[in-house]
Design brief:
The protein is mostly helical. It is 48% helix and 9% strand. The protein contains 9 helices and 4 strands, in the order αααααααβββααβ. A two-stranded antiparallel sheet has the order 1-2. A two-stranded parallel sheet has the order 3-4. The termini are far apart.
Length: 225
């Protein structure tokens, strides 16, 4: 991975030593040292080049270790912890490169720290923070290790229930499907005959909920459970 010195680059990117042969080690080297030669005052005045550099940095992350990526993200955000406009700019770039519908590398884990930083920053206007507040709320309740919100739903017999009534500590597998969704029905059947899944359910380690977004109908009670 040669150092970048193209005319449209903001700064020269780091180059791993020749003695470093493993791909992950080389990518860790680049990701962790990527911004060392960056003049951030100049970068903030040249958003197009900064945006490109950010994308180049992100493109290497899939090949680096998770610990290195998280540390590098935290280090970059720490540079601007007291600067609202700069934090907003970083969050906007992170959203486009790691969270948009068109990105090649979508990563909730990479985007979440940027969304959280922008959502909580007092020097960013409420209107500018709004999209990141919504993103942060969604990510913080859906990522691995997050607590499932106490979402309410109706079970057969028109009785109210919710995720907070499931077995504490159990993993929750949720199907969102309509009654005529063939693919979801097949997935449920495969799950039902899977011995490993059945064992987890019987031990209380897995809870399965099938959610139909349609309004409740008494006809549902006639279905076979």
């Amino acid at each position: 991975m040669p150092a970048s010195a193209a005319a449209d680059d903001l700064f020269v990117y780091p180059t791993p030593p020749d003695s470093m042969l493993q791909l992950q080690n080389r990518c860790d080297y680049i990701v962790s040292r990527f911004w060392q030669r960056c003049n951030f005052d100049q970068a903030m005045r040249n958003r197009a080049k900064f945006h490109k550099a950010f994308g180049d940095w992100v493109s290497i992350m899939p090949h680096a270790s998770a610990d290195t990526v998280h540390a590098a993200v935290d280090a970059l955000l720490a540079r601007f912890v007291k600067k609202g406009p700069e934090t907003l700019a970083l969050a906007q770039m992170a959203r486009e490169w790691t969270f948009s519908d068109t990105t090649e590398f979508r990563s909730d884990e990479v985007y979440a720290p940027f969304a959280n930083a922008a959502a909580a920053h007092k020097k960013i206007s409420k209107d500018d923070r709004a999209i990141f507040v919504a993103d942060a709320k969604r990510l913080n309740t859906s990522m691995v290790g997050a607590t499932v919100p106490a979402l309410a739903y109706t079970v057969r017999g028109n009785e109210a229930s919710g995720f907070d009534r499931l077995t504490p500590g159990a993993s929750v597998l949720v199907f969102f499907c309509r009654r005529d969704d063939v693919d979801a029905s097949l997935a449920r059947i495969r799950l039902d005959v899977d011995p490993n899944a059945r064992e987890l359910i019987e031990r209380g380690e897995l809870a399965v909920v099938c959610v139909n977004p349609e309004p409740y109908s008494p006809e549902w009670d006639k279905d076979v459970a």
